[in-house]
Design brief:
The protein is α+β, with helices and mostly antiparallel strands and about 210 residues long. The chain contains 4 helices and 8 strands; from the N terminus they run βαααβββββββα. Helices cover about 20% and strands about 25% of the residues.
Amino acid sequence: MEYHASDWLGRWQNFESYLTSTDPYLVKAWQDAEALAGRLPMFQHGAKAFWTMACVTTSPENPQTLGGWKITPAEGEKLCIEWLAADGASLGKAIYHLETVLEKGLEGKENALFVAEDADESWPFRCLLAMEPMPPRTARLSGGLLSHLHFQYASSPELLIDPETQKLRNPMWYATVCDGDGTLLEQCNIVRALHRLPVWENLPTL
């Protein structure tokens, strides 16, 4: 993977908020997804049920549902990541450097492993394993989908990756964040695209 710190900067919103939203347009997007869910084995128990299970952002070390991140540039190609709770409160922030690239991580793709500098070794957010944002954050400016990424976190790399096999300890944990600057239409279209539904050009009349 080609790592560029600029690809990660900005506000990121927890995808779980899309699942729990009562906005009528997001509700409609999920209703359409549920109507097609049974056609795909992974959604046999329902689309929302699958994503609720896969995208959970709590962990054995952190009982709080995340609201997302605020990422700002740091020295060189490092990142300053502030972890936010669902109510927007700060859960702490740190400077992260790219430690290594896991060859086969989430989705079987290369994943970046970031490690916080000068963070307590018991801090649940000390290590961040993440896919690179897809598509790039700038894609939305030319009609592309809202940028999003899957991630995992823990206080140490060994809790995420088996050091002997170099495989994920929990390959079904797909915590997800989306570009926090996305419009409601773009949020709905992420839900629709995930379920192979045609995206909306405009918000429909409900």
